[in-house]
Each structure stands twice: as C-alpha cells, then as structure tokens.
Input
Amino acid sequence: MYFMILYVIFRQQGLKGIVTLLALLLMLVLSDQISTNIFKEGFERFRPSHEPALSGLVDLINGKKGGKYGFVSSHATNSFGLAIFSLLLFRKRWYSIFIIFWALLNSYSRIYMGLHYPGDILGGMILGSLIGWFVFWLYKKISRRFVITYAARDYSFQLSSVSPVIFTGILTIIIVFISSVLLLELM
Output
C-alpha cells in the first residue's frame, strides 16, 4: 500500500513528487523519533507485556513483548501521521475514509497483541495527527514558495488516481484476515 501511495504521487506530480516524498519522509522521521525518543523515554510507562502486575494476564502473540515502554504507540503515531498527511494531500472522501479506517485497524492491532494500553494508542493517534497536519502545513508553505502544485490547490489527484491505493489496502486487509483465520485453525 505504501508503494501505491508513492506510485500515485509520482504518477500525478512527476519529478515534483520528490518534494512530496521528502515531506512524507520528514513526517515519518518526526513521528518515529518523537514517539520513541521523547515520549517513550520521557514517560517510561511499561507496556502491558512488561508490567509486573499484569505479566501473567496478558496473552502475547508468538511471545512478542515489544520494547520496555509503550507510551505513546509508535505504530499509532506513524499510522495517523501518514493518514492525516495523505488525506490532506489527496482530498478524496473515499480515500480519507479508507486511510483513517486503516490507521484505526493498525492501531487497534497493538492493543489486541497485548503491547499497548488504549491510552498509548490514543496518545499516538493525537501525536501522529498533529505531526501529519504540521508537516502538511509546512509542505504547503514550501509548495507555494517553489510553485509546486499540490492537491488542495489544483485538485490534480482524481479519485481514479487514488483508487489503486484503496484497492491495495483493502486487498491487504482481506489477505491478513484470511491468513489469521487459517493460522488460528492450525493452532
């Protein structure tokens, strides 16, 4: 799905898509580094899988415990950063619905796996949304200064151009669901 997003950007923007790619990379680096190095190390809140009082109560998938600290969820931060940035970029209703659903599903999986508390996810959702919005705001400023077109100004992204991203994402969700059901039957 990530490659499809890049494909759509470069298909619509050509070489100008490099600036969009750099903005996406900035958003991902900020999301990852702020959630990991500032929040997790700053708050030092144990994950459910590392909490001594809960260690026997948490069901882990494949014994995966994750890192020691969990606030905020980096998966939620990265997912919502990408979701907000890309929905502001593409500005298509069906894409926006899909990408928010994808980010919610990705974030929920961290609770399901016993790696995060709901508050870790909520914090990551808020942090990622703010970072995604901020980087898009910065991207707009740079776009205007260097006369780079983006979706909000020239509406260059048509629904048909983002449809491959939606299709790939839905197909991925279906494949993961089917493989999860099959894996459960084998266990």
